[in-house]
Amino acid sequence: MAAEQQYAKAKISVWWDIENCQVPKGCEPHSIAQNIRSALVDMNYCGPVSIYAYGDTNRIPASVQQGLNTTGIALNHVPAGVKDASNKKILVDMLFWALDNPAPCNYLLICGDRDFSNALHQLRMRKYNILLAQPQKASLSLVAAAKCVWQWTSLLAGGRPLTNTDGSVDNSVHAPVSEPLLMPDNVLLEELVNHLHFEVEHMGLKLMSNIFLSFSLLTICISF
């Protein structure tokens, strides 16, 4: 379960759906960033950490926003009213992050939605290490992409990941799902990025206009 040598000192990008995995009442927001870093170090992930949180900031108390912002967490406002808006924005930013950060690097996703499954498997096949923090239940296909899985409340407190006695991930807390485990190729990833670009543009969020050029660069940067 501990980090492999090539990932131990590699960069760690944390992608947090703050609406899906909320800050619990009574939690000290100033401690979240440090607790996440402590949990990672405990598993021998000692590289530089960047944390990006996404959600409708109008629904997040000012005290929580201040606590996150002052501890180095980049809080990205995603307007309410569009279905899966945060997921789409996170997916696009995750894929573009790979442009500037070729493998080996680490992705830690804080979410439980199956929408991320295809992208995580694509990144894993290109030598990125995938970590996951989930709410009480998460899609099995999402969990299958991850090397290490935490309960969100455990990661929040700086705790250790889920394990069985043999060291494997405990699937008993994961939501049963019927979808097959998809391992998409480059064509499917291109379709995903183009679809996300279209959706996000119509949400009024700024992205690069030439998605095909960006995808070509992405393919080069994260290829084997």
From TrEMBL:
Sections of the chain in a coiled coil: none
MF GO annotations = RNA nuclease activity
Give the record's GO CC terms.
peroxisome
Q: Which residues form the NYN domain?
A: 11-146
Q: Name one GO biological process term.
A: regulation of gene expression
Q: Name one Pfam family in it.
A: NYN
As given in the record, the signal peptide range reads: none
Write down the InterPro entries for this protein, in alphabetical order.
Marf1, NYN
Q: What is the protein name stated in its UniProt record?
A: NYN domain-containing protein
